[in-house]
Design a protein that fits this description.
Layout: E1 13-19, E2 31-37, H1 39-48, E3 52-55, E4 60-63, E5 72-79, E6 86-92, H2 126-129
Parallel strand pairs: 1-6
Antiparallel strand pairs: 1-2, 3-4, 5-6
Length: about 130
């Protein structure tokens, strides 16, 4: 595939992943996570219909849900006006966050950047899912 996006110098493009809301004409769901894609992960995502990412820390391609089973099926996707960020609306199976929360953005902060008490329950036991 020939992508006309503005990838970073190291060949990556940021991806915002948002929960799809049935019947919504535009993205309106909760932000689930932020991750990086390279050309290969973008091709795999479009080929399979399920999110694939590039892990900068592990230096490898990964399929979302390969360890947990918590997959992300692509409903639709968008580019931003500068073509340097992608937005994916997905149907999330289970939780998106490796900590067991539905979203990676579960920790609210006050104006002094102090963490407030977490108000949402985990959707899965991360210790049980990722123990090995």
């Amino acid at each position: 595939m020939d992508f006309d996006f503005k990838f970073t110098a190291d060949g990556l493009i940021p991806a915002i992943v948002q929960e799809a809301v049935p019947g919504a004409a535009q993205p309106t769901g909760r932000i689930l996570m932020f991750a990086w894609l390279n050309r290969e992960s973008l091709e795999k995502t479009l080929e399979t219909g399920f999110m694939h990412y590039w892990s900068r820390s592990r230096g490898k391609l990964w399929f979302k849900g390969e360890s947990s089973g918590h997959t992300q099926r692509v409903v639709r996707w968008y580019q931003d006006c500068d073509r340097d960020v992608l937005l994916f609306e997905v149907e999330q199976a289970g939780g998106a966050c490796h900590t067991g929360h539905r979203s990676c953005f579960f920790q609210e902060l006050d104006r002094g950047a102090k963490a407030l008490p977490v108000r949402e329950e985990k959707v899965f036991d991360d210790g049980a899912v990722y123990s090995a």
